[in-house]
Write a structure and sequence with these properties.
single chain; 65 residues; mainly beta; 5-stranded antiparallel beta sheet; 0% helix; globular
Amino acid sequence: MSHKFKVGQHVRQLGLSYSGNKSVVDGLFEVVRLTPDDRSGEPTYRIRSDLGERAAREGELVRAS
């Protein structure tokens, strides 16, 4: 699969609420690196905010408006 987001793009990370709905769980992140697809074939990323850097799957991210 190809990556939907690009390095330098701002995104927000989604998570599951207690009701099972997806909602934004954290603030604004910047994509800092495109990483290889995970075992299921989903693209992954390294994202960074003021609080640090983390890994994220493409399905967990939405473009920041």
